[in-house]
Structures are given as structure tokens and as C-alpha cells.
């Protein structure tokens, strides 16, 4: 089946109850919006090694979203009177059709701190087998963005205590080292590529599959870096991979927890509170930091290539 055939199949099911937009091309597939009155969400279809994959992760949890899921899964045409549909909550699995056979596993990687002015850049990788997937599911592993700070730190500790230390890797690039690195390469994607591959290398064994939360338009960057280390495997790189792979979801939690712990250490060292992100609040804290410690020390706590840095200096 071609990707367009799958789109036409879904459209023929949904059109009686929903408006289905013309598809747009994305990496590895297409996406299109589905709407009804105030409801409007996106469905994506990917064409992978194992065939067509329909991604319903963007639908949300509204009654309309449940109608769409049931319609696609069961082939039931949505009806305006069908308002009490209930389906089981979707579980995150290694559902990208990455094989786990003959003792090999799936390695997922994700990062945290990329968009935060203060704090480090953290990349983590987790290797799963069917047994580890079951453990992670029992712990409650899911995308770190669905968890608050306390939950991320708590679940990260449970992950580390529940699986072997050789099944996960966390790379922390503190601000001082980060700024030196960026000054040399002038490209964040290079920094991300090197650190993702470094974490993956710690876990990789011949035959393992790799899935990465996509961070660059050019997939070849990661592929080339892997080959530099004699890892001749084509990784799956897709946006929001943490919604599709429990290995990536676990990696997202480990990365976020390490980032949060680093921020807390900075809070204690400099006797203050460093906010996340790059908002006006961040700029105000940055200005206060300079007043207290001097401009020359901002690189100890912040990513200096952010426009936020020049905004603070201009105050």
C-alpha cells in the first residue's frame, strides 16, 4: 500500500463526520488536518521500512479524537450521534516497527536544555528489550513534557534503579564547556549530533536499531557521525519520537531530570533561582546575575550564543 492509498482510505472513513484537509509532505511521509466545528487536529502517515505507519499522537483526548481513533482502528464511520465512544488509553511502545530479535535491542535518544538559556545541554540514550519495555511501562514512562519537574526526577531515579547501568547513558554539557564547543563549531546541530551519537555509542551492539527524536533537517548528519564510529546502521529520525518509542520517552526523562538537577545545583551555588526557557523573566534574572557577579561570568550559567545574552547586555 502506498502512503496516498492510506490517506484516501482514512479520508473515505472520516469524511462523513469530519472535514479532511489536503495532505502536506513532511519528512518520511505526509500530514493533514482533520476538523469538525471547533475541533481541529493533525494526523501523520509515515512510510517506514516495515510499511505504512499512522501516527494519531497529535489528536489529543477529546470525544472527537476518540471518534477518529475508533473509526480508523475499527473502520467505523463517525456519526454525530456516536458521542459515548470509549477506547483504552494508548500505550507508548517501540511501535516504529524496529525489530527486537536475537537479543538485540532498540536504542532511543533525546535531549533537554536545547531551548533553555540557563543550564546545560543534556543528551540521553536508553536501550530497550521487550523485558525492559515492560519495566518502563510499569514505571509510568512517557514523554517528559507530560510530567512535572518532580515526576521527571522521580521517574528518572526509578529508571536508573530498575535497569542495568549499561542500558542507559547521559551526556551533560555544562555551560562553560558548551560555550567553548559552540565557539568552535558555530552550529548547534553539530553539538547535538556529536552528543547523541556519543550516548548511542555507549550502548550500541551490532544488530541494534536506533531511533532519535529528530533535531535536524539533514538526517545525514547523524548517519555520517555514526559511520565515523563504524556504526553502519540507518537510524530512524522523526519528530516527537518520544510519543512513538518508549526508549526515546525514557531517554527524554533521563535528559530532563539531569537538566533539572543541574539547574538546582546552579541555584544553590549562586544563591538564586534560574528560570527555564528564554523569556523576559530569564532576561531579568540574567541582568541581576551580571549585577552581582559581573558580565564576564555569565558564560558559567548560560548559553552565550542565544539572542537573550545580547538582549541582557543591552539593558
From TrEMBL:
Its EC number is 3.1.26.4. InterPro entries: RNase_HII/HIII, RNase_HII/HIII_dom, RNaseH-like_sf, RNaseH_sf. Its cofactor is Mn(2+); Mg(2+). PROSITE patterns: RNASE_H_2. The keyword tRNA-binding does not apply. One of its GO terms (cellular component) is ribonuclease H2 complex. One of its GO terms (molecular function) is metal ion binding. Keywords: Cytoplasm, Endonuclease, Hydrolase, Metal-binding, Nuclease. Its main location: cytoplasm. Endonuclease that specifically degrades the RNA of RNA-DNA hybrids. PANTHER family: RIBONUCLEASE, RIBONUCLEASE H2 SUBUNIT A. This is Ribonuclease.
Amino acid at each position: 500500500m502506498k502512503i496516498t492509498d492510506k490517506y484516501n482510505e482514512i479520508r473515505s472513513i472520516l469524511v462523513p463526520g469530519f472535514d479532511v484537509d489536503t495532505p502536506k509532505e513532511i519528512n518520511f511521509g505526509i500530514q493533514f488536518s482533520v476538523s469538525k466545528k471547533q475541533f481541529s487536529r493533525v494526523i501523520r502517515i509515515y512510510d517506514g521500512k516495515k510499511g505504512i505507519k499512522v501516527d494519531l499522537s497529535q489528536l489529543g483526548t477529546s470525544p472527537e479524537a476518540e471518534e477518529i481513533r475508533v473509526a480508523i482502528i475499527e473502520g467505523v464511520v463517525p456519526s454525530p450521534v456516536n458521542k459515548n465512544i470509549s477506547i483504552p488509553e494508548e500505550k507508548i511502545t517501540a511501535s516504529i516497527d524496529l525489530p527486537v530479535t536475537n537479543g538485540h535491542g532498540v536504542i532511543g535518544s533525546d535531549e533537554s536544555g536545547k531551548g533553555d538559556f540557563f543550564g546545560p545541554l543534556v543528551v540521553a540514550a536508553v536501550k530497550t528489550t521487550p523485558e525492559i519495555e515492560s519495566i518502563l511501562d510499569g514505571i509510568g514512562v512517557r514523554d517528559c513534557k507530560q510530567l512535572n519537574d518532580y515526576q521527571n526526577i522521580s521517574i528518572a531515579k526509578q529508571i536508573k534503579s530498575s535497569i542495568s547501568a549499561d542500558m542507559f547513558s547521559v551526556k551533560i554539557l555544562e555551560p562553560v564547556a558548551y560555550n567553548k564547543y559552540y565557539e568552535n563549531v558555530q552550529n548547534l546541530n553539530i553539538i547535538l549530533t556529536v552528543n547523541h551519537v556519543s550516548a548511542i555509542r555507549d550502548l550500541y551492539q551490532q544488530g541494534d536499531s536506533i531511533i532519535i527524536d529528530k533535531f535536524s533537517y539533514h538526517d545525514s548528519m547523524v548517519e555520517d557521525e555514526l559511520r565515523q564510529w563504524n556504526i553502519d546502521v540507518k537510524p530512524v529520525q522523526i519528530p516527537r519520537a518520544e510519543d512513538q518509542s518508549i526508549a526515546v520517552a525514557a531517554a527524554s526523562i533521563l535528559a530532563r531530570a539531569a537538566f533539572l538537577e543541574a539547574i538546582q545545583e546552579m541555584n544553590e551555588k549562586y544563591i538564586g533561582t534560574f528560570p527555564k526557557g528564554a523569556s523576559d523573566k530569564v532576561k531579568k534574572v540574567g541582568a541581576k546575575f551580571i549585577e552581582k557577579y559581573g558580565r564576564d561570568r555569565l558564560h558559567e550559567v548560560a548559553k552565550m550564543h542565544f539572542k537573550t545574552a545580547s538582549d541582557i547586555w543591552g539593558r
